[in-house]
Amino acid sequence: MPDMVRQSRRGRVSGAGVALHSVYLHRSEKIKLELLLHQIPSIESKLSFPKARADPQRRNWVVNATDGDPFTRVIADLIPKYLPTCYLEGYADAYSKVAAEGPARTPRVVVTANAFSSDDGWKMWAGLQCERGAKLVIAQHGGHYGTGDWSASQMHEIAISDRYLSWGWRDLEHPTVRPAPATKLIGMVRRRPMQTGRCLQVLASFPRLSYWMFSVPIGPQCQGYFDDQFAFAGALSRQVRDELIVRLNSNDYGWDQAQRWKDVEPEITTDNGRSDLSTLLDHTRLYVATYNATTFLESFTQGVPTVMFWNPEFWELSESAKPFFELLREAGVLFDDPVTCALHVNSIWEDVPAWWASSNVQSAVNEFCNQYAFVGRRPLRDLKAALTHW
How do residues 182-222 score in pLDDT, each as one tens digit? Predict the structure, then answer.
C-alpha cells in the first residue's frame, strides 16, 4: 500500500522548514541534521490508502497524441488503461486522507531520495506543499548517476526538482544540480584492510525484457555480462579461487543465476544475495565490483580494497566521467577485460593492503570519490547549507 511520512503531526514546521523523507541517512545522522536545522526530530510512519477498483467507464477517455511518433501513440493508448487507481478512481479518497491525516506542516523545502517514484502518498502530500510554494529537493540515491552516458531516471529527477543534490558531480547543462555530501555514504565507518580473508565478487542482474532506460546491459547483452563473470573466476589462481565468494543478485529476473554457477563453476561458493553485506565485508580481503552502480562507491568510502571490471560497450560512460574512470584504470583498479583483472588480482593477492595503500591507487580513488562519492569533513553542515541556501 502507498505510504507517506506523518511528521510532527498537525503543526507548522519549525526551524529551517525542511521536511525530510526517505533520504537514506542513518537514523542517528538524520536526527543530527534536523537538530542542525533547529527542528524537532521527526518519526516516519505509514499512511495507507484504501484500494480502489478500476472502473472501465471512468477510463473511457483518450490522450491526444495524433501528431506523435508511433511509440508515443502507443503510450498514449496505454495511459488510460494502466493509470494507477489512486490517481483516478481512488484519488478523491486519497486526497482527503492526505489532507485529514497527513502532516499539516507547511515546509519551505521537501526532500527525498526516492519517494518521488515509489511512494504515492508522499507524492500527493509533497505536491500539495509545492503548490503552496515549497521547493522540491531530490537527493541522489545511488551510483551510476553522473557517470552513465544516458539515464532516463537522472533526466527525470533533475527535470522535476528545484534542486538536485549530486554526490559530488556537476552538470553544466543543468544548474539546478548541486554537489552535496552523499546521504547514503555519510556515517560509514572506514575499515582496516585485511591481510587475510575472502575475495568477494558482487554481481548485478537485470530484467530479461528491459524497462530501465539507462546505460547497462540490456536484454541479450546480459548473457555477455554473465560470461564475463565466469571468465574472471576461471582465470583466478587456485589460491584466490579457494577464497572466492560470488554474491549473486537477490533479484534473479528469471536468469537462474545459482544454477548457472553450479553448472559452470560447481566448486565456487555462492551467496544468494540476501546475506548482510556488511557481515561479508568483515571477512573480505578484496572486493570485486562488476557493474557501475553503488557497490564500489560504498567499498571505496569504507576503505575496502577494491578492483572493478566491466565491458565498456555495456556500461557506456558520460564524457565528463571518463577522465575519472581513466584514473582508476591507470592505477590498476578498473579493467575492461575480466581475464586481465583476474591476473591482476592474482599478482596482488599475497599483499592486498600494500597494493591498496600505494600512492597511485589512493590518489586515483580519492580523486574519484571527491567527484562521485563525496562525503567531506562536515557532511551534515554541508547538507544543511544545500537545503537552506537558495
Answer: 999 999 999 999 999 999 999 999 999 888 789 999 988 99
As given in the structure block, the three cell numbers for residue 198 are 575472502
Residues 125 and 265 in one domain: no
- Residue at grid coordinates 494502466: 82
Q: How would you list the strands of the sheet with 198-202, edge to edge?
A: 269-271, 244-247, 198-202, 284-289, 306-309, 334-335
Give the residue among 241, 300, 287 at the shortest CA–CA distance from 267: 241
Q: Are residues 24 and 151 in the same domain?
A: yes
**For 90-143, what is each residue's pLDDT tens digit?**
999 998 888 887 666 789 999 999 999 988 889 999 999 999 999 999 999 999
Q: Mark whether 147 and 230 lie in a shared domain.
A: no
Q: How far is CA 178 from CA 164, 303, 387, in A?
A: 6, 26, 10
Instruction: Indicate if 299 and 384 belong to the same structural domain.
Output: no
**Same domain for 281 and 150:** no
CA 25, distance to chain mean position in Å, is: 13
Adjacent-strand bridge partners of 334: 308
Number of domains in the chain: 2
Question: Is the pTM here over 0.90, yes or no?
Answer: yes
Of 386, 194, 156, 383, whose CA–CA distance to 284 is shortest? 194
Same domain, residue pair 251 and 222: yes
Q: In what order do the strands lie in the sheet with 109-112?
A: 18-21, 109-112, 135-139, 163-166, 177-179
